[in-house]
Task: structure prediction
Amino acid sequence: MHVMVLGAGLSGVTTAWYLTQAGLRVSLLDRQPGAGLETSFANGGQISISHPEPWANPGAPAQILRWLGRPDAPLMFRPSRDPAQWRWGLRFLLECLPARTHRNTAAIAALAVWSGQQLRALRAQLGLQYDQLGRGILHLFYTQAEYLKAHERARALRAFGIDARVLDRVQCLALEPALAARAGTLAGGIHAAGDESGDAHQFTRALAERLAAAGATLHWETELLGLEAAPGGDIAAAHVRRADGSSEVLRADAWVVCLGSYGARMLAPLGIRLPIYPVKGYSITAPVSNPALAPSVSLTDESRRIVCSRLGERLRVAGTAELNGFDTVVRPERIAAITDWVQAHFPGAIDAARAEPWAGLRPATPGNVPLIGRSARANLWLNTGHGTLGWTLACGSAAALAELMCKRRPGVDFPFLDAS
Result:
C-alpha cells in the first residue's frame, strides 16, 4: 500500500517513519524546502509529559477575564469576524467543564506517557542527536497560593503514572542553581524527572534524513492545492504545485493529514469539519553568554505560562497563546515580555542582542486532545490537532496511527477516531 503523508512537521515526519517501519510504501509532501520549518521550528523544546491538563479547565474562564487588556497576557483573544474562531471559542468554554477536563486530561496523560516510551526507543534505535537533555522539567510557582496546590497536583500526576515530586525553594535551587537571581520570590516547584527537552527542528530534520535513507519519497517545495475525491467517496488524488510553478496530480492508496492549523481548511471542501483553530505561540532563541548563569533543567513558570529549555549553547524561551487567526506576524510587545522574563530570571545568561524571535501556529482542538485515526473518508487518516503538546505527543501519536492503519489496536488507552 502506498501512503501519502501530507505535512512534514513533527507529526508528519514521525508518521511517515513509523509507517515505513511497518513495511508500507510512503511518500511525504510539504510546501517548505525541508522538514520542521513551520510550527515545529522553534517551539519551547519540552517533552512535557507532566503537563497533561489542557488550557480548557474549570479555572480558565476567570483567568482569561483577568488577563483581558494585558499586552503580556499568557492567553490573548483577538476577536475577528471569522465564524470558526467563535465556534472554537464556544467549544473551548464547553471543554472547561470539570468532567470534560478530567476526561481530556486522562486521555492526554495516557498518550503522553506512551509517547515518551516511543521517543526513547526511537532515539536508542537510531542514535538521534538533537541537543536533548534528560534532566526533567521543573514547574515553578511564584505565589504561595499556587504552591499550596502542588501536592494535590503531584498526586494527580502520579495517579496517571507520571513521576512528580514537590520541592521547596531550597530544593529547587539545589536542582537548578541558576534560579538564584529570583530565589526570594520563588515559593517552590514540582520536578518531573521523566520529562525531557530538546530541539524539535533538529529531531525532525534528522528523522527525515533517516526516512529518505529508508526509501521514502520526499516531495519538498510542493504545495498542496486540494484533494480530489473519487465517486465512491475515497480520496483519489492530490493536486499540487511545484516550486517552478508547474502543476501535478499525485496519487496514493491512503492519505494522512498532518497539516497543522491548515488541515481544517484543506478538508472543509470535502465536508470534513475538524475542530482545529490556530493558537499562536512565540519564542526567542539566544546564545548562552555565561553557561554558569543559564539553566540546564527545563523550566515552566506556571504563573506566566513561559517555558525555558537549554539547547546546547542556546537558550530557548517560549510562551503565550494568541487566538488571532492565521496571523504569523512577530509582535514586538509579545517578544519583549518573553525577553524581559529571561533577563529578570537569568541576568547575564544570554546574549539578548543576538536573540532570534519566532512565532508559529499551534493546531489546537478546544480540549487539546489530538485527532488520531480514520476520518469519514475510508482511505483518509488524521494525525493532527496536538496544540501545545506536539513535541510531547509526536512519537506516540505516529506509532499509534501506524498500528491503526495496519489494523492493530495501539497499546494505549486513548479515544482514537474510527469513522469507518
User: Anything to note?
Assistant: The two ends are 18 Å apart (CA to CA). The longest strand covers residues 277-287.
